[in-house]
């Protein structure tokens, strides 16, 4: 992420770095709870992909049970 900040800074020379960092704050505020939730419940990271491909974990009666 830091590299992206410096790239934006080199493109937008007239905008101070403090202003660019202020624009990043909402994304960090959203990312921190998401990282905490995925650390507590790792299944959350695979819930949507599993729904898309129709896979269910072993023993739940899903159509792709192995």
Describe the model:
It is built from three helices and no strands. The protein is an all-alpha fold and about 70 residues long. It has one domain (about 1-55).
Biggest sheet, open or closed, and with what strands and sense?
A: none
Computed CA radius of gyration, to the nearest angstrom? 20 Å
Query: Quick check: average pLDDT?
Result: 83
Shape: elongated
Q: How many domains, as an integer?
A: 1
The SSE order reads HHH
Question: TL;DR?
Answer:
The protein is built from 3 helices and no strands. The chain has 66 residues and is an all-alpha fold.
Tags for this model:
66 residues; mainly alpha; elongated
Strand and helix layout:
Layout: H1 2-11, H2 17-40, H3 43-53
């Amino acid at each position: 992420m830091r590299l992206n900040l410096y790239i934006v800074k080199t493109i937008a020379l007239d905008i101070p770095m403090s202003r660019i960092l202020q624009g990043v704050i909402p994304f960090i505020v959203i990312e921190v709870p998401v990282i905490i939730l995925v650390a507590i419940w790792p299944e959350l990271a695979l819930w949507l992909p599993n729904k898309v491909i129709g896979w269910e974990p072993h023993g739940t009666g899903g159509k792709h049970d192995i």
